[in-house]
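Quick start: load a record and inspect it. Here is Nuclear envelope integral membrane protein 1:
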Amino acid sequence: FDPKLLLLFLLGLMLFFCGDLLSRSQIFYYSAGMSMGILASLLIIIFILYKFMPKKSPIYVILVGGWSFSLYLIQLVFKNLQEIWRCYWQYLLSYVLTVGFVSFAVCYKYGPLENERNINLLTWALQLLGLCFMYSGIQIPHIALAIIIIALCTKNLEYPIQWLYITYRKMCKAAEKPVPPRLLTEEEYRIQGEVETRKALEELREFCNSPDCSAWKTVSRIQSPKRFADFVEGSSHLTPNEVSVHEQEYGLGSIIAQDESYEETSSEEEDSHSHCPPITQNNFLT
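Running the structure step on this input writes:
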């Protein structure tokens, strides 16, 4: 039992399942940037020098040799970290503080990732790194592969379930009979008409009071400018005469009059039928 391998496996498990959350976290962004600057500062310096060097030069030899030497130095430091900390802790602490501050300043200048594609790339990189850590943390390859497959199925289990649910909903909708829409009653129709008319009139008043409305062009097109001005100021859009005419034609009195006329017409038809002589059916021969 190696506790380092267990910690490596747990770290990989965390990176795989929490990679999407870590890629959007500002704390992880700054801490990862500072750690990368502290551990790989020499590699970053060589990469920056490569950008400024002319392409047609022996820079590739220097680049390969510099990267190899940098990796060798990093490996050497990790092997003798305790001895370096015991003998040269002042220099090591100064290096960590200086490079960490510079790395934080660079990360703060560019800011956290905001583009969704960059966030997805970082998420996939963290998940791939987590799978590598999980594989390295288990000494038996077959068990490591089995655990990686189980982790992949568990992580992506929501997508098949979501697809099955969407398919089930579509099949249920296709099997259901269309429900006919409910029609409005006369009272609901009247109330809806009044509410929508009132709402449209308020919107018209707001538009007429807004700077988008050309007052002179509007006044030149209407027949009664004073009535229009009173309406914009808040008066009713109908005159008392129009209201009374509307009540006579479509109000309660008109409905009662229509009912009375219908009753009179029906009674006259019944009287006419009662005065008519009975009609006898002739036989086929006559």
